[in-house]
Design brief:
The chain is of the alpha/beta class. The protein is built from ten helices and ten strands. Helices cover 42% and strands 26% of the residues. Strands 3-2-1-7-8-10-9 form a seven-stranded mixed β-sheet. Strands 4-6-5 form a three-stranded mixed β-sheet.
């Protein structure tokens, strides 16, 4: 009897200690994708939108963390598409769309800057040179096609967007406005978007404007990740917003796990 109890308690300790360590890592992690993999059930994530996919590093990470999901990678800059398409060839669950996301369906100028990672539909703010120097200097302007996420969704076979990730160099709010109907219908579960606290681009949305829009759509700001500083001030961060219904499901799942452990313990102790 005592031998059986000791064996069982060792199993419970291993299980519960794993859960505790996982929770600690999850709470301390500065990787929002890892956090999403803990809040959502990876095997049940079906659709991910990667807006501003660049050369596909984030899309590739999503494809590995959520192997059952289809990752739709939106990137309008032709020079990035070659690398992005190569990653899609290696990861069959990545689909490339050579489009920008915005609030209107149109063809519009796209600013190509000295540092191509800062390319944007918005013009750079001259006052941002203190932080970024010449990296934001526009070297050319090309025309790109912009699509509203609402209209793209209508033409797709998607039922729900599990993760909406936006890294659009100041254009995040316009892309969110282009998904207005999806928000109203409750077809988006989580939003992960970059925000620059310093006005880096002209017509860039401020903190209150961006956060209010997402919160008014029924989401809660969950946390800030990968925060960058300049002279002691926050200049950039990734914001994770989660619908309360998803948080409630995640909470119940963790509670049920502990109930299961308790029931097993009671069963063993009464044998």
């Amino acid at each position: 009897m005592l031998k059986g109890i000791r064996s069982f308690l060792r199993k419970i300790f291993l299980i519960s200690n794993y859960e505790l360590r996982s929770k600690k890592i999850y709470e301390m992690s500065d990787d929002p994708m890892f956090v999403l993999s803990k809040i959502l059930e990876p095997q049940k994530v079906n659709i991910i939108i990667d807006g501003g996919a660049s050369i596909g590093e984030t899309s590739q990470s999503f494809s590995k963390l959520f192997p059952n999901a289809l990752v739709h990678a939106f990137e309008p800059f032709p020079a990035f598409l070659n690398a992005l398409n190569k990653k899609a060839d290696l990861n069959q669950n990545i689909k490339v769309h050579p489009l920008a996301l915005g609030k209107n369906n149109c063809t519009t100028p796209f600013n190509v800057n000295q540092s191509e990672g800062t390319n944007s539909l918005l013009k750079p703010n001259e006052n941002a040179t203190e932080i970024y120097g010449s990296l934001l200097k526009t070297k050319s302007i090309i025309d790109v096609q912009v699509i509203k996420l609402d209209d793209w969704f209508k033409s797709s076979e998607s039922q729900m967007i599990d993760i909406l990730k936006l890294d659009l160099q100041g254009g995040e709010l316009d892309a969110l406005k282009g998904a207005k109907n999806l928000f109203e219908k409750g077809l988006i579960k989580t939003v992960l978007c970059e925000f620059m606290f310093k006005k880096t681009y002209q017509d860039q949305a401020g903190w209150i404007e961006l956060v209010s829009y997402i919160e008014n759509s029924g989401f809660q700001l969950f946390n800030l990740y990968q925060t960058q500083h300049y002279k002691g001030q926050i200049i950039q961060s990734d914001l994770l917003f989660i619908h309360p219904s998803i948080l409630e499901i995640s909470k119940k799942k963790r509670t049920n796990n502990w109930h299961n452990y308790s029931n097993i313990l009671i069963s063993e102790m009464t044998k």
